[in-house]
Write a structure and sequence with these properties.
Distance between the termini: 34 Å
Radius of gyration: 18 Å
Helix content: 40-55%
Number of strands: 7
Shape: globular
Bound molecules: nicotinamide-adenine-dinucleotide
Structural class: alpha/beta
Number of domains: 1
CATH architecture: 3-Layer(aba) Sandwich
Strand order of the largest sheet: 3-2-1-4-5-6-7
CATH topology: Rossmann fold
Largest sheet: 7 strands, parallel
Strand content: 5-15%
Order of helices and strands: EHEHEHEHEHEHHEH
CATH class: Alpha Beta
Number of helices: 8
CATH superfamily: NAD(P)-binding Rossmann-like Domain
Length: 261
Amino acid sequence: MLIDLSNKVAIVTGAGRGIGYEIATTLASEGVTAVITDIRQDLLDAAAAEWSRNGWAGLQLLCDVRKPDDNRAVVAAVDAAFGRIDILVNNAGVANGGRVESLSEDNWDLNFDINLKGTFLMCQAVIPVMKRQKSGRILNAASFAAIMPSIGSAAYAASKAGVESFTRVLAGELGAHDITVNCYAPGMIPTAMNGFADRTAAEQERLLDTLTLRRWGSPKDVANLICFLSSDLAAYITGTMIDVSGGKFATQMPWVAHREP
Ligand SMILES: NC(=O)c1ccc[n+]([C@@H]2O[C@H](COP(=O)([O-])OP(=O)(O)OC[C@H]3O[C@@H](n4cnc5c(N)ncnc54)[C@H](O)[C@@H]3O)[C@@H](O)[C@H]2O)c1
């Protein structure tokens, strides 16, 4: 069975680097017209060069997901250029941390404004187009932190738990229009956001000990899930969160089996 995404049009937010970039390039290489948005023009310029090198269809558009006008402008531009929007991946996110006692209000707001409100605003902008089509796939980046938060991640974890709840409500509201809405929970994927790869060897070992598969996730692991959820094969999946974490804490002490296989 093959996943056929040809002729679909996708928007991926915050896709200038990291997981979002991998999602967008994977979709593009599968024949999707992949529109990248990001808050950083330098990242968009680099992506534009990659698109042109590979002959991929799409656009690179500046967009701060916190701004309703930016989101509406992206949707209008994509609708005008390609006449439809099949897939929206709300990937843009930040993880500014700090323990509650010392967490600044600014960092609290930043997590909520980008991770949760940005997702809401982009969905609000795209809904009329997907309703018109009577089809669509909305995929929201949650996090394993929504399932089991870490010390110092109150703002991030609460915003991502909000993404899960928001996803379920929106799935309920859009089911009658044949639009599915799901979120996904990556576990530990070394990127600029978390700097896992820069930690000491001992710290990395401790983190890896939480994973059933005992290896870091890769952006491709998430991109592959997005391809499946975007496809016709996933037509009956909506209103849920899919864990793509290598089995993080699937058992209490996953490292035991790696030490004594
Ligand atoms: N890396 C992980 O292990 C992990 C785990 C769980 C969830 N996630 C989620 O996956 C998503 C991507 O994470 P990543 O690790 O690739 O991070 P990253 O920092 O590498 O990429 C985030 C991207 O979002 C963009 N961005 C930031 N603020 C923005 C805004 N206001 N508007 C538009 N774009 C903005 C950045 O410029 C960047 O390109 C995030 O939502 C994150 O919470 C990541």
